[in-house]
Amino acid sequence: MRVGVIATMKTGLEHFVYRELTFLxxxxxxxxxxxxxxxxxxxxARKEWKLHRWNxxxxxxxQPYYFFRSPVRYAxxxxxxxxxxxxxxxxxxxxxxxxxxxxxxIYAQFGDHKLxxxxxxxxxxxxxxxxxxxxxxxxxxxxxxxxxxxxxxCDQIITVTEYNREYLSRHYGVDTAAVQVVRCxxxxxxxxxxxxFVVLIVGFFAEKKGHxxxxxxxxxxxxxxxxxxxxxxxxxxxxxxxxxxxxxxxxLEDQVAFFGKLSGSALxxxxxxxxxxxxxxxxxxxxxxxxxxxxxxxxxxxxKPVITTRHVEIPRIVExxxxxxxxxxxxxxxxxxxxxxxxxxxxxxxxNRRIAEQTFSPRNAxxxxxxxxxxxxxxxxxxxxxxxxxxxxxxxxxQTSYRGVA
Length: 406
Fold this sequence. Notes:
Blueprint: E1 2-9, H1 15-26, E2 30-38, E3 50-51, H2 56-61, H3 63-69, H4 71-83, H5 87-97, E4 105-109, H6 113-125, E5 129-133, H7 136-139, H8 144-153, E6 156-159, H9 162-172, E7 179-181, E8 197-202, H10 211-221, E9 226-231, H11 243-249, E10 256-260, H12 264-273, E11 276-279, H13 294-301, E12 306-309, H14 314-317, E13 322-323, H15 328-340, H16 342-359, H17 363-376, E14 382-383, E15 386-387, H18 388-399
Parallel strand pairs: 1-2, 1-4, 2-3, 4-5, 5-6, 6-7, 8-9, 8-11, 9-10, 11-12, 12-13
Antiparallel strand pairs: 14-15
């Protein structure tokens, strides 16, 4: 059986629509998708679905063709469309109907323009029409008279709540016996309580950040309850690394969550929630390295255990856990160590918080402010009451107060 689904894709498919169509396809139903609007979004058509896109110019230019194919029927429906102010819906239905030859059932998602297009498609093709009523179209329907007419023409009306069925009866005179309640679906295998061990990495997708090393280490561990949260995107670095493609190549799509750019409370939330922060920094192929990664400072300030590398300044500050650059085996072993020991995670987190307080506090900005004030005052002798040497000494003392490599 093939179902012709009329839905909007104005920002991709609605998540719940995409999910239902995926379930239907898994049950052996073939999907032909007829979008009333189309723009890319989070949920697009799956490759096995037939997608019928259109543009306004083509729809308009083909109207004479549809008229000459069946002038009486076309004229009758055109007159009806004009009477109910649905000319655009009718024109699009003419276009879609020529591509619905292999469709067994027309299925409209939402009782608005999708249903109106489906209504005219049914009139043109004499094929069964079903509609699912969700919510907004009950309260703010774009064409209430046509809504009532189209509902009466449907072979099956579906809605997602009992309340909606009662509302259809009270406000639109629809017999409740003609409406079947089918609630929206959720994949209870994918959406279920699970305890995950979350490894967080924050940084733009550049070679020097070591995303590939981290993902290979996680792959080697083979622990399905380890999940990697990736915050960041391409940025403007020339040494761009396609991190999603790496995750796909390694078969880790179900273990890697991409958050894109985050800031403010959203960024702080992922820091708070993760079990360990991992940044396997390295020198990239053009010889560029890090300074001291800001994300590493932030994770330490949140009292999180961190796993990182012996790269530039990092081992001067981070006591443990550090591994060699590009060492997939060493990184996998380090992740396993913190994964297996809650007490180790707590110990490392507490130590990192103390390091952050002493090494990365706002006092550092105070040092810069003092330097700038000295320069603005035109003095080369230092800040009154505090020689320049002592400022540098204080900054140096902060930067080296915690040393050592694990």
